[in-house]
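Page header: ASSEMBLY MODEL / two components / 279 residues total.
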Amino acid sequence: MPLKGRTAKDCYEPFRTHVAKLLARTIAPNAVVRVTESGVRDRYMLGLAPPGSMLPLDSNHGPLHLHIAQTLEAERDGKLYRLRTRAYWYRLHLAPDVKARALLRWEYDSDKTDVRQPHPPRNHMHAAATIGSGQANQLDLNRLHLPTGWVLLESVIRFLITDLGVAPVCGNEWPSVLAEGERSFRQDFT
Amino acid sequence: MSTLLSWLRSLLADHRTGLSDAEVHAQLADLAREHLGVGEAEALRMLRSGELDGTAIEVELRSRLFLLGEPSPRSTPPSKAPPEARAAL
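Prediction written out in full:
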């Protein structure tokens, strides 16, 4: 069920802790996860500190860098607040350069909900690649919105470990750590 | 009563600790200057034009626009696939 609390902080702080613990136990023991508050609105941004920083990863394909961020909203629900993710960005970069385009990116944008307006899939991914044959049939995957389901951070971490060979901090316990994270997310935050 | 007071205090505390719009704009300006070497207005123009799509600075700027309550500029406009590719899709 959605996380509810008497204050907005009661909502986002457990979620921030969830993300911080997950990263610390799997791929980034020193990650600092922050939530920045809007002074006058129930809007928040969750990301790594300092702003624009990325998590360095050693993979089978050399060094990679993970950039994660979410925007959150604490909606009034009677006397309580209910946490809602308005957008997420999970991006894999070759270098910790804030101006460089990501290799892979998984994104969600809840602004794309107006059925009267044309919009690409809300949950989608991009890749820094072009596929197809011949000059005319090239598909730029950096511009196309490849539809996905809701991508959990746990799923991205699973991909990093199983497909890219990133060594998990928790060793052989990583499957149970990710399973617990997924269970907690679905039970406590959705 | 104490529960109500506690709730009211926490509500007020939430709003006291949050960033004001001016502080968010200051962060936008700092990000623009530090990472792009431009002012806030130029950084937002670059964001809206798609020049920053796929970069970390794009996310940092968009997050702060969200805090300001501004609609997210459209990210990565739908691809104009060539006619041959459209036929194959």
